[in-house]
Amino acid sequence: MYPDRKLLCQRFEPSGSESQESSHEASEVEKRLDFSESLQVEDLDFGKGEGENSLKGILYMVLCAFCFAGVGFVIKCIYHNYTEVGIFDILLIRCCLTTIVYYFVAKVLKVNLFEINPGMATILMLRVFLGIIAIGSLVASMRYLPASIAMMIYNINPILVMILAYFMLSEQLNLIKIVCCFGAFAGIVIIGLGRNENSQSEGEILGILLASIACISDSFSFTLTRKLNLEIHYILNPYYLSLGCLLTSVLVPLFYSDLLHPENYSVPQILLCLSDGILALLAYLFLSLAYKHTHASTVSPLIYLDSLLNLPTDILYFSYSFYITDLVGSVLCFICVLVPVIRLLCRPK
């Protein structure tokens, strides 16, 4: 794209009879080359997710947060109304639906689900393994904690994703991103602690442990999702994650017979589980698209929106009290999520 530096500089190399002005001109040409090359590098970096596709990535992550909030609400409804329904019942129905739909989406998009190079296949298997642990732990944690509390603990993961993306993907971090990410998390903590003081859940410690495991597992799995989506089609991530969860929800109950209760399923239970499946299907599809279009460190803090969206349903439907800490935490979180997005969108092209 750019002329060879040596040829241009030789063209202006001063001979014994040439004046000092020629030497000065050669120096100016070299400076211009340096400047052009630096622009080229910046443009390449800008195009890796922080440029024209940033708006797409942000939009997909906002949609993902809405769907995850819906998943949290539906799971809490299931646990609230049907105590006999367990995690494997939910995952079995969810993953039967999502695996079939993702398979047909891949066929429509003409994506070969089995043509993956060995290096990417290994990373994909690791991502699926971590994703299965995260999904199972998060769903189970909501049996013992309010959805907003479980999501508060889980939502430490955007901070971890930023750190992992810096070291594993060489993504750039700036002070505004870091401060706003920690500020948004502080808002979630304010909400969670204010509500937790009044929580009398018997399995609270187990719920906190499960949500923490989900947080750490998904921090790594989301970072790997970004790495994979730079190399392979975005549909492969949610498809193999869903397939892995389906196999897990079928195989594990073979050794523990009391984990699945299909004989007790009622129509309302099946409808609720199907609703969970549809929302989860959309959530993981939007998540994969977001991590395809934009840097992991840019979109990961937007997941905080799902805790804010879970808050009204906890208060209105599950009769949790509203506290001043809910208002303070929500405002702080919303501002901190919004600031880096506005800054990114307003940055000159």
UniProtKB/TrEMBL annotation:
Location of the EamA domain? 56-192, 206-339
- The record lists the membrane-crossing segments as 58-79, 86-106, 118-140, 152-169, 175-193, 205-224, 239-259, 271-291, 320-346
Q: Does the keyword Membrane apply?
A: yes
One GO cellular component term of this record is: membrane
- Localization (cell): Membrane
Q: Which domain of life is it from?
A: Eukaryota
Q: Which UniProt keywords apply?
A: Membrane, Transmembrane, Transmembrane helix
Membrane topology, as annotated, equals: Multi-pass membrane protein
Protein name in the entry: EamA domain-containing protein
